[in-house]
Amino acid sequence: MVFSSLLFLFRFLPAVLFLYYAVPGRFRNGVLFIGSLLFYGWGEPVYISLLLFSTLVDFIHGKWIGRLLAQGRRDRAKWLVASSAAINLGLLGFFKYAGFFAGAVNRLTGLGIPELSVALPVGISFYTFQTMSYTIDVYRGQAKVQDDIVAFGAYVSMFPQLIAGPIVRYSTIAEELKERRESLWEFETGVRIFLVGLAKKVLLANPMGELWTEIQGVPEADRAVLMAWLGIFAFGMQIYFDFSGYSDMAVGLGRMFGFHFPENFRHPYASRSVTEFWRRWHISLGTWFREYVYIPLGGNRRGKRRQAVNIMAVWLLTGLWHGADWNFLLWGGYFGVLLLAEKLVLSRVLKRLPGALRLAYTLAAVFFGWVLFAHEDLGEGISYLRQLLGLGGLAAVNGRSVYLTVTSLPLGALAVIGASPAGARIGEKLGLLERQPDGDGSFQGEPGSERSGAACLGGDGVSQGEPGPERSGAACLGGDGSSRQTGGIAAVTRPVCFGGLFLLCVAYLVNAGYNPFLYFRF
Amino acid sequence: MKNWKTCGTAAVFLGLLALGTGASLLWPQRRFSETENRYLTGRPELSLEGVMDGSYGETYEKYLGDQFPLRDGFVGIKTAAERFLGRQDVNGVYFGKDGYLMERFEREDIETEQLEENLDALAAFLLTEGERLGTDRVKAMLVPSAAWAMPEKLPLLAAPYDQQEVLRKLSARLGGAEVLVDAGTALRESGKDGLYYRTDHHWTVSGAYEGYRAWAEAMGIVPWERSAFSVETVSRDFVGTVQAKVNWKTEPDAMERWTPRDGTAYEVFYDGSEEKAAGGLYTESALESRDKYRFYLDGNHGLTKIRTVRGTGEMGSDSHSSPGAGGPPRRLCIIKDSYANSFAPFAANHYETTFLLDLRYFNGNISHFLEQEGITDLLVLYRIPGFAAEETLWKLPVAKQGGL
């Protein structure tokens, strides 16, 4: 099931909300667990068993590790962490990467290993990473052993972030799993975050995706350079609003049930360097790789050369995480190289450039990356790149490209505003959203909270200030509760505006000729 | 009080959730959507099997979308929102000038593999039949849709695919055999208004008349003039399929009936029946339904037979040209889609018997049929976008090695 569907909004969500608040507190994890299993199994019931298997395996591993640690047998516990990781990665590898690796080996060696193609269970990349974080954190002493299998099952299968993130580390919500306080104000905030996310997905990402799909399908005879630029703009906007919309919906739903999930996107397209971009894009994924891959590999503590190797390893893996194909590997490698370059040389150059140029450089780097990301066939990716650069022998403009550009202009402008910090500021001015700690587009982090993103992977001086607090969870929508005093007019405009937004989303969903779900490759 | 002030959004959201849930559970189910002219998905039966293989979940989602309360209204809201954002086309429909809704077709919509297959099949058929009946007796007329034929009605900057490309592709397969009728150019250059409906994908009777003139010219027949018909408006509230795609209010179309002034009458037989259809060429009852276009030759039939009864009116039948006058009577067969339904009455004036054969519904042996009925003249008539997507052209017989 996906959030942006009538089924979710008018069947599943009301039922779960009702049951959740109708039962006493001690049964609420149970409602979430069972609800989440139904959510997951709606289209593909067999995969519920996979989720249950993951839950059971990691629950047992966690308990066992806890017992060994209590007995002071740390080295034995280490083996259990390895076993848990092996099982989790084994599942991921079997379902997601078996076909790809078999193909790669076959191509390299000429062997004829059968190339499996199993239907990828939705969200397996997300929840595998989540459950791995549990056993590792228990081993590291960063999390207590969970003795309640229902609470643990609720964590593993938690439907708000099950299939599209954010990747919530166990330690982040361990406390809230045991005890959380739902409140009307939290609920209200959650509703607004959720509706912003829904609107991002339904009103911006889908139409942008429609434009990209159309341009992708335009035969070469009707292409033009302008069209190629419009296309990759549309793709970049689609993927941003899709991912961040899903994350917002997850954060908002979490709030409705009393959980605080980490913020996952913070205006990445306003970044002034690629390093900064990756601190603002899919923050929870960056954090995961930093915590569980980069630092264990030695991070930056073993000399520059080792650090460079670590960075490349992390980014190749990040690329591969997005999909089992060469273009994703290449895409990850591309960013690894860029980050290294910024670290070694570029940051010094960038520092001297005016902000607008740094922004232009960053966007160019990121959007060229999207060309790789969008084309699983490398040949097609390269030919699209040539078209972008005017090397494809295409006309600069043609009738169709002008028509598409002009008729997409207002939507494109809305998308640009929505993706930039200006959008959030307009929301604040209108009294729809609350003060945002990150209003001017640069990080003015609040110290003391968990550091976000791949912060350590970045340079030192490229972005101003410290990385933001991970726990601030879509703080732009009023996470801290300090602005509860909703004054006068907002008491009326908010319900009206958000109610209208919701109805508009429903209208788009009813007319869902086009409501694709992008996560089946993750 | 304080709660109300700070939590109004939550209240509105929960209220809308409850309303939507309740209404969608209680809303009366519709079997058929008049607006969309299709059957809607009903609530699926719950079964263990269906749940386990996921089909129950899938159907349930379809059902919810199809049966959602105020569905048509929501579709209209979306269209309004997209137009507000400067979109000139929504759901594949242009918002043209003067209230024209026109389907938008691009190269990738038309130039499909199916089109190539269809062109191959059609070309082979035309060549075979041209050999058998003579190329002057065999014609093909592929008619572009409104967006190509009435470019002056397109929205600003719209630059759709040149549908005549399909004619060029067909022509290249025919190796010089002159069997193509360029109706598109004739329509475009006729200078007439209202050749297509504003709300429907069909051409109007007036559009069909221009097509008929182009065909007659190619056949060497002198076409009847417009003045040979008395025109009456039979409906002023025709709202067609293109409008349904966007559910956008626009002025309904008028439908016309053109009756020969000379009193020529027609007997119509559907699907091999011996019984004359009551209303002749026209099905009056269709005007009371949503699918008004069925008025013309009763919509889709696999086989339609029209017998033309010569009029004795003031103009006299001998003032009109019939092909091969003086020789044995000639019989026309039109292999067609619904574009021919308003075209055939014009062509029928030049024949004693005219057949309409719709490949989608006709399952007999076609070469057998052509021979048995003594067909002397052939016309293949399709709308270009429909032709590109048609999956039944393989039924056309072709000469095989060693005879049929």
Molecular structure report:
The complex is a heterodimer of chains A (522) and B (404). Chain A has 522 residues and is an all-alpha fold. Chain A has two domains: 6-180, no CATH class; 186-521, no CATH class. Chain A has helices at 6-22, 28-41, 48-70, 74-109, 124-140, 149-157, 159-162, 170-178, 184-216, 225-256, 274-280, 283-294, 303-321, 326-352, 355-374, 378-388, 399-419, 421-429, 490-510. Chain A is globular, with a radius of gyration of 23 Å. The model of chain A is unreliable at 436-485 and 513-522 (pLDDT under 50). In chain B, 35% of the residues lie in helices and 17% in strands. Chain B has 15 helices and 14 strands. Chain B has helices at 2-6, 8-26, 48-52, 55-66, 71-84, 107-110, 113-133, 146-149, 165-174, 183-189, 205-219, 241-246, 344-348, 366-372, 384-389; strands spanning 32-33, 38-39, 89-90, 93-95, 101-103, 138-143, 180-181, 229-238, 253-260, 265-270, 303-309, 331-336, 353-357, 377-383. In chain B, strand 3 and strand 4 (93-95) form a beta hairpin. In chain B, helix 7 (113-133) crosses helix 9 (165-174) and helix 10 packs across helix 11.
Could you write a compact summary of the structure shown?
The complex is a heterodimer of chains A (522) and B (404). By secondary structure, chain A is mainly alpha-helical. Chain A has 2 domains: 6-180, no CATH class; 186-521, no CATH class.
